Amino acid sequence: MIAQFDVNTIWRRKFGQALRRRDDDMLLLAPRAIGTKNDSREPGDDIISLPPGWASRTAAIAMPMLQWRAQALAARRGGRIDTAIFTSFHYLPIARRLKHSARILYYCSDDYRSYAGWGGPAAIDREAELCRLASLSIFVSAALRDRAVAEYGLDPATSLVSPNASEARFSESVAKPEELAGLDGPIFGVVGVFNERIDYRFLERLASSPEVGSLALVGPVLPGADSTGALESLRLSPKVHWFGARPHDEIHAWMAGIDIAVIPYAKSDFNHYCSPMRLWDHLAIGQPILATDACDQIADQPGVIVMPSGGDLDRSIRSAKTAVTGGRRPHLETWDDRAAFLLPLIK
């Protein structure tokens, strides 16, 4: 039986769910602190309650508990864990215990060194050890895999790249939200969370360009998102339209409703190494994508209009507008596509 530790983020869950659609003999483990609300639970999640601070201050107690409960859950379903997929080095203690009885795999879905409180030499050593224990390490970006090969001495033959993906609904025809229908075109748009990962100066320049009809911003603005003052300027611009957070099951309509998708990541290690789900969603929709050069995976994606630092923004905007006249060119890569490729290797 395959057990994935854990599915507590949407991108890990989508990955696990796709694997289980091809092999239903699988545990999708969702560790939760005792008393935590299960608002984010989805059908099929295997909830395991653990002491508060289970991934940090109580890990010495919680990790063995998680292992025992996962093995007991497998036994109740008539099997045992013979393949364990670990999604971060927090689960290294369990990997050490299971290495003699199960095949260990590492699914690296993010640059964990950039997480608050996760970095430093100890984190690097723990991830390196997990890579060495794993018979296969799967990275969501080539940049992450190449770094592991260079810094951990990881054998390239035991590692591969499998980016994040999209869902079929993003490639389907859908009505444009009424709120977008009346905006001046072309509509440039950013859909997602507005946090410190976004380059607000870039958006400010975009909104001030005479080449832009409207700039639609769809998603929540998190506290501390911007320290430059550009966010306030965007709030005052008549071209900029804020629509706030929208339910995830409506996001595909909002993404499809804009003419030119914008992925305005700021320069950072985290953005450089990431595999943005919004990239694959917009590729599935097929409208032109205008992006900064902060993310290695976006910059290497054919067809994306990449605006380099210090480049001519208006020229990039005009290129995107020209691409609009050629119609949409959907390119769908689903989580099921990823699972079809990976499952034979995992099993």
Average pLDDT figure: 94
Major beta sheet, strand line-up: 3-2-1-4-5-6-7
Per DSSP E runs of 2 or more residues, the count of β-strands stands at 13
What fraction, in percent, of the residue positions are helical? 25-40%
CATH T-level topology of the largest domain = Rossmann fold
Q: Could you tell me how far the N terminus lies from the C terminus, measured between alpha carbons in angstroms?
A: 10 Å
Structural domains: how many: 2
> Low-confidence spans: pLDDT under 50, at least 5 residues?
none
What does the model show?
By secondary structure, this protein is of the alpha/beta class. It is built from 14 helices and 13 strands. The protein has helices at 10-22, 59-76, 92-98, 121-133, 142-152, 178-181, 200-208, 230-236, 251-256, 269-273, 277-285, 296-299, 313-325, 335-346; strands spanning 2-5, 26-33, 46-50, 83-86, 103-108, 136-139, 159-161, 187-191, 214-218, 240-244, 260-263, 289-292, 305-307. Helix 12 (296-299) links the parallel strand 12 and strand 13. Helix 1 packs across helix 14 and helix 7 (200-208) packs parallel to helix 8 (230-236). It starts with a strand and ends with a helix.
